[in-house]
Design brief:
Elements (H helix, E strand, L loop, with lengths): L1 H6 L2 H16 L9 H4 L7 E10 L9 E4 L6 E4 L5 E7 L4 E6 L6 E5 L8 E6 L11 E8 L4 H6 L8 H8 L8 E2 L3 H12 L3 H6 L15 E2 L11 E5 L2 E5 L12 E2 L11 E8 L2 E8 L3 H7 L1 E2 L1 H6 L5 H9 L7 E8 L20 E4 L1 E11 L5 E11 L6 E3 L3 H4 L4 E11 L4 E11 L3 H7 L3 E2 L3 H4 L4 E4 L4 H8 L4 H8 E4 L3 H6 L3 H7 L3 E4 L2 E9 L2 E4 L9 E3 L10 E6 L4 E7 L11 E8 L4 E5 L4 E13 L6 E5 L13 E3 L4 E5 L9 E13 L6
């Protein structure tokens, strides 16, 4: 009819229009008789659609929020007292609308006028009977780190086209792209990626290069790692791992700088070890300088900066903001006693590869994985954080995480997002670097302590140095190995005082932080979902469940707690992480929260957990003093190598109500022990 009206001559349109207006004014013609004429298409191709929102018994719902995407940013409308709202939608595209109202279930619908041209739509909201306790929202703290640098960071922007990332995420039951909270930690990760020049490594390749897309079990996966400490790749074959050599420039690198060995005040942060090569004495000096000394004595890693397209913006800012900090970067300096013994250091003529080895700590990300286990979508209204506000370049030792939060700020991040059934929401809470593996790495190399007495009477040793640009050019232009050796090394005399003050490998490891957080550190205090606030327990001091790409560190026993408020068991994650033999036995402290009545330590894997001592630490509500109660089991009274053991399938359950006051606060588990893997097979 509209086409017919438009085809009429102008004079006829005027007469007919006046005739229709006259009828309307006279009340003889109801406007509703012309819906097809009055439904108009605007210049942007958007059509007016009227929505009626009602209860299940046909009563209008006032103030229901209607959110939809058309062109541009999401648009929000609210229903009138009669339950109506008008929106504009494209005439040929699908539009998802979300209708919410407190007390009702969220309704998600698709409107496509090309499929159904009806511009008057009626929707009914079901009454939401879910209470706070009935909302099926599960969460788990995770720590992602270790061999796969790009994978660790790309978890915040996961690429499910990568088979490796798919496989890793599926191990924690994530099979679709999750939503990720944008907060200070998320921003600091992006700042690190961009300012270190690793966008391509992380964002494009997501840490892997696939030789065959057919199936993962028959796929070679190149995994990138910071240069220096054992560059390698991984090859997956029948669920096992083999180590392969990786290309130098494909590694993720965040510190294109080389420190220079110095004897000023670093003896305590120095470890001397030796090796033998065909009867000749080779030595290695491991040293962790202050960050400011790297700039003072060192050189830029010119090859990394140019050939590998790295940037030094991030590390410069880190050094400037933490000049006295030690532990983020260390260096391994090879040295010889007789420089004339070797044909060529640089080319490894006698098997000696003489270059400075950078010891770069491994990046990690702590995050919460929240999953919607309801049958309908839920709205995440806000997240309330406890926050340790830091500059994006400030470093914090985070080994005892709970103590950091004794004084913190609380703030709320307002959100307005929908989480569909079965979907995951990741909340990053800490980004940093882990140096925990250093002692084990060098121990496994079989390198032994250098006999300090052999060095005391030596006039000089020849220690590898970082080359300047002119020296690098000069080295490349000469083939005389004696000249090359002189360019690559510097003669140094070690005083007896310096030598005697150096540390053993284990002593050095004690001086270096296990975990170094970068920028702000967060705890999620609560999450408001569908207008209901859900409390979130903080993570334990030791990392909980690890995503480590099949790291050979075992699985660790699990800590599970019973929360009467939520009437259920909550999994806090693993404990005694990476303490996979007796030599790594140590004490750990794990936060349990304030509303836990029982705990369970479960051994789920093919391994044996050996617990030497166990106690509960809490704050007494009356005296406000910190108290400790030792668990009354003979084997757990003290650290004496009289162990209580747990085999696969066994658990130790403790009823806290028998030992601590009901209203005790800041309850923690103190445990000392280790575990032993029975099967070294990786899967």
């Amino acid at each position: 009819m509209l086409n017919y009206f438009q085809s009429l001559p102008y004079s006829v349109k005027v007469i007919l229009g006046s005739f229709i207006v006259g009828f309307i004014l006279a009340g003889l013609l109801n406007i509703s008789y012309f819906p097809s004429i009055l439904t108009t298409l605007n210049d942007e191709g958007l059509v007016d659609v009227t929505l009626l929102v009602q209860t299940e018994d046909n009563q209008p719902i006032e103030g229901a929020e209607v959110q939809f995407h058309s062109k541009g940013a999401p648009t929000t409308k609210y229903t009138t007292k009669s339950g109506y709202a008008e929106i504009k939608v494209p005439d040929r595209e699908s539009v998802e609308i979300n209708i919410t109202k407190e007390g009702y279930e969220i309704l998600v619908e698709i409107i496509n006028l090309e499929v159904d041209p009806d511009t008057n739509r009626k929707f009914k909201l079901k009454s939401n009977k879910l209470s706070k306790l009935e909302l099926k929202i599960d969460y788990q703290h995770y720590t992602a780190e270790n061999e796969v640098f790009p994978l660790t960071l790309s978890l915040m922007k996961p690429d499910l086209n990568s088979p490796l990332i798919q496989k890793i995420l599926q191990t924690i039951d994530i099979d679709s792209v999750p939503l990720v909270a944008r907060n200070d930690v998320f921003n600091n990760i992006n700042k690190f990626i961009n300012e270190s020049g690793n966008q391509e490594v992380i964002n494009v390749t997501s840490g892997v290069q696939i030789a065959s897309q057919d199936k993962l079990d028959d796929t070679k996966v190149l995994v990138n790692r910071e240069e220096g400490v054992g560059d390698f790749s991984l090859e997956y074959t029948n669920n096992s791992i083999k180590f392969l050599q990786d290309d130098f420039c494909e590694n993720l690198s965040y510190a294109p700088v080389l420190g220079q060995f110095n004897t000023d005040d670093d003896s305590k942060y120095t470890f001397l070890m030796y090796n033998h090569d065909q009867g000749k004495v080779l030595g290695n000096i491991i040293q962790y300088p202050k960050l400011s000394d790297i700039v003072k004595y060192g050189q830029k890693d010119y090859y990394r900066l140019s050939a590998c397209k790295n940037r030094d913006v991030w590390i410069k800012n880190i050094i400037a903001n933490n000049p006295e900090f030690r532990g983020l970067l260390g260096f391994n300096y090879p040295f010889v006693i007789d420089i004339n013994e070797f044909e060529s250091f640089g080319c490894g003529g006698n098997g000696a590869i003489f270059s400075i080895e950078k010891i770069a700590s491994l990046p990690y990300v702590k995050f919460i994985d929240l999953v919607n286990n309801n049958q309908e979508p839920v709205r995440i209204n806000s997240i309330t954080y406890d926050s340790i506000k830091k500059s994006p370049y400030e470093l914090t030792v985070a080994d005892q995480r709970s103590s950091i939060f004794e004084y913190s700020d609380t703030w709320t991040q307002e959100l307005n997002i929908y989480l569909k059934p079965g979907n995951n929401f990741l909340i990053p809470i800490e980004f940093g670097f882990n140096a925990q593996y250093i002692e084990e790495y060098y121990h496994n190399l079989g390198l032994k302590y250098f006999d300090k007495s052999k060095l005391v009477n030596l006039k000089d040793i020849y220690v590898t140095k970082a080359l300047s640009k002119p020296e690098s050019k000069k080295f490349s232009n000469t083939s005389d190995y004696k000249q090359q050796n002189r360019l690559l090394t510097t003669p140094i005399t070690l005083s007896q005082e310096f030598i005697n003050s150096t540390s053993s490998l284990s002593e050095l490891s004690e001086l270096i932080p296990n975990r170094i957080a970068v920028g702000s550190i967060l705890n999620v205090k609560s999450i408001k979902i569908n207008g209901k606030s859900i409390d979130i327990l903080p993570p334990s001091d030791e990392p909980t469940v690890y995503i480590s790409t099949y790291l050979q560190a075992g699985s660790c026993p699990y800590l599970v707690v019973y929360d009467p408020k939520q009437d259920g068991w909550l999994e806090l994650g693993t404990i005694l992480y990476a303490r996979k033999n007796k030599s790594l036995q140590q004490e750990e402290l794990h936060s349990l929260g304030d509303s836990v009545s029982k705990i369970r330590i479960e051994e789920r894997e093919a391994e044996i957990t050996y617990i030497d001592a166990l106690s509960i630490v809490y704050t007494d509500p009356e005296t406000e003093k910190v108290e400790e109660v030792i668990y009354p089991m003979t084997e757990l009274q003290k650290v004496d190598e009289d162990y209580f053991s747990l085999h696969q399938g066994e658990a130790l359950e403790i009823d806290l109500e028998q030992f601590i006051p009901a209203n005790a606060s800041d309850v923690k588990l103190k445990i000392n022990g280790y575990y032993q893997v029975l099967q070294e097979e990786l899967s």
